[in-house]
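Memo to structure team: turn this sequence into structure tokens by end of day. - J.P.
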Amino acid sequence: MEVFNALLPIFTEYGYLAVFVMLLICGFGVPVPEDVTLVTGGVIAGLGYADVNTMFAVGMAGVIIGDGLVFSIGRFKGASVMRWKTVQRIITPERFHSAQEAFQKYGRWVMFVARFLPGLRTPVFFTAGMSKRVSFGTWFLMDGVAALISVPVWVYLGYFGARNFEWMFTILHRFQYGIFALLGVGAVVLGVVWWRRRKANPSA
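Reply from structure team:
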């Protein structure tokens, strides 16, 4: 709620540009919730300060370009960037190793899941680029499909909840809990599949 209250006047004043820039910042792991950013963009559309369909397009562009920059930096400058103290505070060794383990365990599907996990999204995309085992097309497909699920949900939730914040935040929290529950189930299923494959082929 505090983040929403801070973003609302800025987005109202500067519109699409502010939303786009904030989403780029979110892509680099800055602790500003992407879902709240998108919902706030939807709210200003619902209040008449923007067009909701254009806001959806801006939201898609912001999250894809932000994630793409992280992936590209990992691909071309990963080793040198990891030595920067600022980057080390965002992509901590623990997050980096967690991303590596998840990526090795689940392969490209972890990039799809990472779109819904703010704490791991940046290190996962950075690691995917740094590994040089994932093509740009594969990354774009996984991230793009996930974004087509998440972005419209948050933008249009803000649009329809612009006149009723209490209802909007109730639905927001329900969506968040539901996403985490689905991801938890998915992680268990993928873990079982991976374990069975390793058991069937220990040398893999």
